[in-house]
Amino acid sequence: MMGTAELTPKEIVRELNKYIVGQAEAKKSVAIALRNRWRRKHLPADMQDEIIPKNILLIGPTGVGKTEIARRLAKLVGAPFIKVEATKYTEVGYVGRDVEQIIRDLVTNAVRMVQEQESRRFQQQAEEAANKRILQIFWPKKEHAADDDHKESTSCTDSVVSVGSDKRQAMLEKISSHQWDEKEIEVKVSPQERPVQGVLMGSSNEELTNNFQEMLGSIMPKRKKRKKMTVAKARDIFRQEELEKCLDMDVVIEKAITATEQAGIVFIDEFDKIAEKSRSGGSPDVSREGVQRDILPIVEGATVNTKYGAVKTDHILFIAAGAFHVSKPSDLIPELQGRFPIRVELQSLTAEDFKRILTEPNQSLVKQYKALLQTDGVDLDFTAEGIEALAEYAYRVNLETENIGARRLHTMLEKILEDIAFAAPDITEKTIPVTKEFVDEKLGTVVDNTDLSHYIL
Question: Which annotated residues bind ATP (predicted)?
């Protein structure tokens, strides 16, 4: 994965172009925002604290790439990322989720991300230790197996069990080369934790319940039970246990909090739903305005307490998005408007855009469906005219019914390929041309009947 330091704004846009068609202005804005983070790190410390992220408001209909731009951006640089819907959160005192839960969830994602990164360093070591533990079950050495299946190591640098004789070495090689993966063995495993229901009601119910479960887990010793499973499954369990011994969770949490504070990205969808003002002379919705006022401190810069420690939000990048059909960005409370200084309007997709979406991106829809049916030996041959017809139908239905953007293509491809997907294992003719005539036959009648389109497409 490329680091932020290696990515110029043009390179960021070039990477986004591999997955997202069009929307050049939005890509340009997020590329600048990402590069500014790198620029900030190269400034004197006193100036770094003064420079805050320029949060972005993406305005446009559903299905045009708003979410995908934010998600791909985070993945591109390995930044902690979370997508939330503004409508799930309500003002404190109303029934709903506390807005601070956004940051708690973000840092939880960061911890998971850092754990995965750190685990890669010890994968081979953990694999070897897991294979030795399986060997100990098949052929236990008395000095190591007095009252358990194996002697557990206390750290990832400890040797779980010595291999010993040539016969044991040969057995270990068979285990390591996955020759015995389907054999069944009996191992001792910790029972899976089950969620505690109905504990500590409140706006941060999820967080409090998780903390309560962890507290109980640390007080009450975990009893292991014997369970039969395949060698492959046992290896996965043992490997995970060995990786946990190798990871210093204090270091993981410290890195995760730093990554959250310095590189975290929060994508808030349906932002327009909390921006609606009063209608027909009535009073404004107090709950919606309350959500805005609760979001404001987090966007401005606040300290949120999480189970991993305090997290500052001053330099987290917030990207908000909404269609803004009924409301306008100016309907947001003034303080929040000022915290999203970059406004980008995304364009509705044209028929030409649909053609490009079907064929150009990495793992495009056409490539996906071809690959899926090739597993049954069926080769889909999409002709240029067939793709053009499909794009025209998608554009037309979006105009005449609800505009759901590129998601319309998923619906249409499922419709035209339904019979083929059903009969694929039994088809004798293994090459199926998807021509204009084929698309017309499957979609023409439905598209022409607007009422029917509402239900089927």
Answer: 21, 63-68, 269, 335, 407
**168 labelled as ligand-binding?**
no
Assign domain 4-117+253-345 to its CATH architecture: 3-Layer(aba) Sandwich (3.40)
Do 56 and 342 contact (CB within 8 A), yes or no?
yes
The DSSP secondary structure of 318-355, one letter per residue, reads EEEEE--SSS-GGGS-HHHHHT--EEEEPPPP-HHHHH
The whole-model pTM stands at 0.77
Please, which residues have CB within 8 angstroms of residue 386's CB and are 6 or more apart in sequence? 433, 434, 435, 436, 438, 439
- For 351-446, CATH gives 1.10.8.60
For residue 74, the model assigns a pLDDT of 87
Q: How many degrees, rounded to 5, is the angle at CA 340 between CA 335 and CA 341? A: 105
pLDDT tens sequence across 156-204: 655 445 555 778 888 888 888 888 888 888 887 776 544 444 333 334 5
The first and second tokens of residue 160, run together, are: 């779980």
State yes or no: 67 annotated in a binding site: yes
420 with 373: CB under 8 angstroms?
yes
Q: Is 335 annotated as a binding residue?
A: yes
Residue 407 labelled as part of a binding site: yes
Domain locations in the chain as residue ranges: 4-117+253-345, 121-251, 351-446
